[in-house]
Each structure stands twice: as C-alpha cells, then as structure tokens.
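Discussion board: Methods & Data

I've been asked by a reviewer to show the raw model output for two of the constructs in my manuscript, not just the figures. I'm not sure how much to include, so I'm pasting the format here to get opinions. Each protein appears as its amino acid sequence followed by a line of discrete structure tokens. Is this the kind of thing reviewers expect to see in a supplement, or should I convert it first? Here is construct A:
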Amino acid sequence: MSEEEKLEGVTEVEETAEVTEETAEEAVEVEAEAEEAVTQLPAKKQRSRKKKVETTQETKPESEWKEQVVQVRRVTKVVKGGKKLSFRAIVVVGNQKGQVGVGCAKASEVIIAIQKAIADGRKNLINVPIFKTTIPHPITGRSGAGAVMLRPASQGTGIIAGGAVRSVLELAGIENILSKSLGSKSPLNAANATLEALKALKPFNEVAKKRGLSMAELLN
C-alpha cells in the first residue's frame, strides 16, 4: 500500500469515529428527554386529577334539607307459613326554615327503610308559622293516643322538649319553645301529634284579617 492510501484509510476511520460520537451524544440527549417526559407525566396526571376533584367539589351544592332518624325498630308480620321480619324507620325531614315532615316506612333492610322514610317525609311537608323564633300562640296536638302541648317561650329559653318532639321542632326552625308530652310515649305518635299541633297554628295576620283589625290593634 502506498502512503496516500494509508492516509485515506486513517481519515475514513477518523470520520467514522466522529459519526459514532455524534450518534452517541444524540442517543444520550434522546434518553434524557424521554426520562424528563416520563417524570413529568405523573405530575400532569396528578394536577389533572386535582383539578377534576376541585371541580366536582365546587359543582356539588349543599342541600338545605336535613334528616334525623328518630327510631329504627324490627317488626314482624304473621303470614302463611311463619313470620316475616322487616325494619321500620321513622325519620324527620326539614329545612329549619319553616318546613318539616315526618316519614315512616318499612323494608327488609335498614338503609332501604330509612331511604323510603325520607321520601315519605318529603311528600308530607307542612309550613310552620314562626313568630320571633317561637310559635304564635299555645296549642295542643293529638294523634292516636299521643298528645303534645306546645307553648311560646321568650328569647334564650331554647327548645324544652325531648325525643321525637325535639327532632320535629329543631328541623322546623323553632329556637325557643316549651312542650310537654301528655299521651302515649310512642315516638311515632309523639311526632305526629307535634306535626298536627304545628299544622293547626295560625299566624297573626290571618287572625287580624278575620277579626277586621290591624296587626298593631291585635298585638296592643
């Protein structure tokens, strides 16, 4: 081989070495970019998940209706072939703004019985006339063997009641009242008697119209 051929071979080797070095550097850069992309992917997913959670929390409005379970009791029904066991739930539903209802339902499971009682309570809502955080006048309500007496109270008295009567008065939005249960101790009878008493209340403006008086004359 001549010297010119040797020189040409050396230059070709140097060029191939340079090409391999360039490809190696490119490969290293590609690997680094791929690693950065992989590390950034979960962070983006987490951010998107956080945004989704925040949007779902913002879109869910808080319901003004509140439910309170008064009693859950196991009951039996005698049928052909034996006894059928089920659960009875009594639930009070109200918005603490003058609307309240009592629901009672039966089902083979407790959760289903409570859900049915809530639906029944929302169907039987009544409007309660509230006068300065209490009721306008004394009244007594009856339902079956139950009887409940309600009396207005001054500011700061609170709800003087217990059991089902207290649940109904709280969810109706009354803050000051005196009450006494005079009949049956059954929670269902007491709740229905309280509901009947609140249903029979009459606001001052209706009484003033019937008597042909103004509110100032009626209230002295």
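Construct B, same format:
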Amino acid sequence: MRNHTVILSLLALMFLSSCGTKLKKELELKNEQITHLQEQLHHEQNTNTSLLARLSDLSVISKAGAESIQNSLESINQQYAFIEDLTEKIQDKDSINLALVLNLKRSLSDINDDDVQIEVRDGVVYVSISDKMLFSSGSSRLGSQAQEVLGKIATVVNDHDDLDILVEGHTDDVPMNTECIADNWDLSVKRATSVVRALQNEYYVSPDRLTAAGRSYYMPKADNSTHVGRGLNRRTEIIITPKLDQFFQLLESPKVPG
C-alpha cells in the first residue's frame, strides 16, 4: 500500500512537471508574440508620425503651390488683357492710317504720283515729295508749287491733332558747297526747316507737333549713280506718327504680380 502511494506521488509530480514545462513554453511563446506585437505597434506609431509630418508638409506645399498658381493665372490674365488692348489700339491706329492715306490721296489726286507718293511704312504714314515740287536746285527756299502741296497736306493733318509730323530732308550724293549752303547735311536740314516753318506759319499746324530733321544723302531710295536715281533721292518726306508719349504708353506691359 505504501509503495502504491509513492508511485502515485511520483506520477503526480511528473504530471505537474510536464504541465509546468508546457505552460512555461506557452508563456514564453506568448511573451514572444507580445514582444513582436509591441514592435509592430511601435513601427506603426513611427509610420503614423511620419505620415502626419508628410501630410503637414504637403499641406504647406499645396498652399504655396496654390498661391503660385493663382499668381500665374493673374499674370496670364493681365498679359491676355494687355494683348487684347494692344491689338485693339493697333487696329485703331491702322484705321487712322488708312483714313489718313485715303484723305491725303483724295486731297492730292490732281498731283502727279511721281512727284508725291503716299504709303504706310513701319506702321506710320509717309508722304514723299520730290524736290522739284518744293525747291529750286540747290536751294532751301520753297517755290510756288510748294504752297499748294503743303496746304493740302496741312488741311488733312490738322484734322488729326493727336498725331505728330516729322519732316525729313534728303539729298543726292552730289557735294554741296555754296555761299548759303555748307554741305549736303546743311541743305537737307534747311529744306526740312523751311517746310516746318511753312506748316506752322501759313497753315496753322501746331508747332509742338512738328519736328525738322536732315538726312543728307545717307538714306537713298535709289542708286545715286544714275540721273533718275539721284532725282528720286532728292526728296522731302513728311512722316505722320502717333505722339511719342502715347506710343511708349502703348508698348508698356502690365506689371506681373510678385
């Protein structure tokens, strides 16, 4: 009986030992799982923190990007409005030039086209008058025919007081040196001054619209080696232009937002 009791005790101890070992292993496994889960949780927390930081950065970038896009749109709108306005003004100027050309040609229709040529060049109106219509050879004094031509031109330009008039004298390359004329520069300037003075004093063109300039023989229309070419180069050009301040305002671009 005693031996039986001892055997039972030993069996119980073995069972308990076996259970303890199993429980210990399960506990260790659970601890490993807990450690692994804790590591995962820590990783997820770090990831979330990083994502939040990125989202914060993205919101700042988006705000800055939105402001940049807004500024770009405002700039584009201003540039578009400027182009529309410029196009409209150019069209208006072209319409004025067309009206000027038609009125000048109508007014000067009884004068030979070889002596007076009217054209639009570089966006402005040119009236080119041969020297024989205005001056005697080598002289800067206006002849009798000049009065009729200049009077008709003045009548037209006086109807457009928002335009300026530049008068340019041109010569051929035959050297000039007389008692009254020093050289070709002198002749070209004096001829331009004579025309300007007549437009102001006799035909009431406002002097603040007038400019006199001499080109000598440095802007020829034709070859100076021929008689015909020299005749074409001896001319006076009346150039009708927009007022310079208005012209520069026309070319000013809008300010781009900072």
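Answer (T.O., handling editor elsewhere):
This is acceptable in a supplement if you add a one-line summary per construct. For B, something like: The mean pLDDT is 79.
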